[in-house]
DNA sequence: AAAAAAACGGAACCATTACTCCGTTTATTA
DNA sequence: TAATAAACGGAGTAATGGTTCCGTTTTTTT
């Protein structure tokens, strides 16, 4: 009698080039549902309350056991990464779209967009912090993609003379990081506007 | 027979208007020595390693028991306040001195000074963060003094036309906070220079 | 120098949080 | 629908870090 073997060689979860987990067909129905739900809740909670919210809290709000959360995302870090990933992905997409516009406009519009979206979204701020905090650490995956997208906008703007030349992408990331951090505790959009004004004029340079 | 009474009504520790603990004569010799030592060590450790360093660590490095630290500073918060206080005090003094200079110069020199001193000093960054993070919360004590000192420099600079007029002190505090935070993880002074350049030009305004 | 007061030291306590383990439940398969 | 595999849930574990308590030591007073 032939040995029992896994009835159908289920395809494994894999990771695509960008680092996102490709949700293959291999998950059981309830599992896929739960995974989705966790991600949903985590995204909202992280955005409104910050990354320090304990996993238990997220599990509770999702109406799901802690163990389940950990099966899907073996560490808190990985859950955060997953959430952060989609935020960055969306921004990258926006950046690409903007490349159509006038170079100077594009760059500054992108900055505005980030600031606007970031105001009041602690998860997004953290996402940017993760690629902007320590600019010496080489990036990879989605963070690198993001930096490249931003870099392209910057380059174009510089070539068009809309942004000073003595500035690099990493400087922008760093500045962005600072602005975000400031806005983390001040969701006043008036402040955001004024800071953006200063940054904008400063980036144009030589008065 | 008369009841025993405290031989000498020792003067109590009090707090002066700025919030600093006035070290009266009431402390025993070893106590005063220890208090000083704790403050010294804490200042250095907080500066180089940040405020997250546990109290135990500070006690150990000072060669003093944990209990002793807590007798002098009933909560970690109070120890931090004490450290932060002296940093701010020094900055305020500098600000006053600078008022002598040309208004525009004074203001920008002060910004440079803070950035220079802040680069690599996590305690100082935290000190500024504490008065700049949430600009809606009304300040008091030393933080208010600091804001006022900064405000005075700003006012003069604005009246002299060296700084744009659509900006308030709290905006400066916020910007400063952001810059500091950025530099917290990047002690590269080149980056500091470039960011300062952008901020400076941005604050001058209307190109 | 003895008594009283002040200060010391650090083990123990408590709260928080990330993460594990395993008995139970649910989905899938045959 | 019974057997099997997959996934679930949450009590329990471990590490961390702030704070308290109290027996011991040091300083000050008489």
Instruction: Please name the two chains that share the biggest interface, counting residues whose Cβ lies under 8 Å from a Cβ on the partner chain.
Output: A-B, 35 and 34 residues
What is the strand arrangement across the widest sheet of chain A? 1-2
Rg of chain A computed from alpha carbons, rounded to a whole number of angstroms = 20 Å
Domain count of chain A: the total is 2
Structural category of chain A: mainly alpha
- Number of extended strands of chain A: 2
What is the CATH architecture term of the largest domain in chain A? Orthogonal Bundle
Mean pLDDT of chain A: 86
**Could you list the spans of chain A in which at least 5 consecutive residues all have pLDDT below 50?**
1-23
DNA-binding region (chains A, B): 54-73
Protein name (chains A, B): AcrR family transcriptional regulator
Domain HTH tetR-type (chains A, B): 32-91
Keywords (chains A, B): DNA-binding, Transcription, Transcription regulation
Overview of this protein structure:
Two copies of one chain form a homodimer. By secondary structure, chain A is mostly helical. Chain A folds into two domains: 25-74, Homeodomain-like (Arc Repressor Mutant, subunit A), CATH 1.10.10; 84-204, Tetracycline Repressor, domain 2 (Orthogonal Bundle), CATH 1.10.357.10. Helix content of chain A is 66%, strand content 2%. Chain A has nine helices and two strands, in the order ββααααααααα. Chain A has helices at residues 29-49, 55-62, 66-72, 76-98, 103-118, 122-132, 141-159, 169-184, 189-204, and strands spanning 14-15, 21-22. The first copy, chain A, has a two-stranded antiparallel sheet. In chain A, helix 4 (76-98) packs across helix 6 (122-132). The longest helix of chain A is centred in the middle third of the chain and has 23 residues, at 76-98. Chain A is elongated. Mean pLDDT of chain A is 86; it is low at 1-23. The interface between A and B is medium-sized, with 35 and 34 residues. Chain A binds a DNA duplex (30 and 30 nucleotides) through residues 4, 6-8, 27-31, 34, 54-56, 59, 64-68, 70-71, 74-76. Chains A, B: Residues 1-14 have a biased composition (Basic and acidic residues). Chains A, B: InterPro entries: Homeodomain-like_sf, HTH-type_TetR-like_transc_reg, HTH_TetR, Tet_transcr_reg_TetR-rel_C_sf, TetR_SbtR-like_C. Chains A, B: Keywords: DNA-binding, Transcription, Transcription regulation.
